Amino acid sequence: MADMYQDDYYPNHLVAKIEQILLTMCEQIETNPPTTIEAFCAYSYPAVEAINELEDEFDEHDSELETVARECMGGDFATIARAYGFENLTGDELEHIIAPREW
Predict the structure, then answer these.
(1) Contacts of range 64-71, beta carbons closer than 8 Å, 24 or more positions apart
(2) pTM to 2 decimals?
(3) Which residues are CB-neighbours of 33 under 8 A, at least 6 positions away?
(4) Residue 61 DSSP SS3
(5) Within 13 Å, how many C-alpha atoms sit on residue 100's CB side?
(6) 44-84 residue pLDDT tens
(7) Pair 25, 80: CB distance under 8 Å
């Protein structure tokens, strides 16, 4: 999220919403840690879908979830997956855990 916070193109209050979505996902993971990528997706998919729902709010602020945001959020999902036991996450697996994305 750091790159998005540092870029005036992204309203900080909306970036904070994304950050909260990711924090909530982490709290859920800590309650019942997944052991497979498929199990991880049970947490990541709702988070991705919640982020998708923010697109209109970004539009209202003359912003959008485009390349920089996509790279930043993809990196954050990868970092979270690695932190919770998926250290050898491949590019294909990353794409899988963020598959419902519209960004």
Answers:
(1) 65/102, 65/103, 66/103, 68/3, 68/4, 68/7, 68/9, 69/4, 69/10, 69/103, 70/101, 70/103, 71/3
(2) 0.95
(3) 84, 85
(4) coil
(5) 13
(6) 999 999 999 999 999 999 999 999 999 999 999 999 999 99
(7) yes
Please give the Cα distance from 31 to 69 (Å, whole number): 28
- In b/e form, how buried is each residue of 68-85, taking b as 16+ CB within 10 angstroms? ebeebbbebbbebbeebe
User: Residue type for 95, please?
Assistant: E
Cβ-based burial of 4 (10 A; exposed 0-12, middle 13-18, buried ≥19): buried
As a whole number of angstroms, the distance between CA 75 and CA 57 comes to 22
**Amino acid identity, position 86:** F
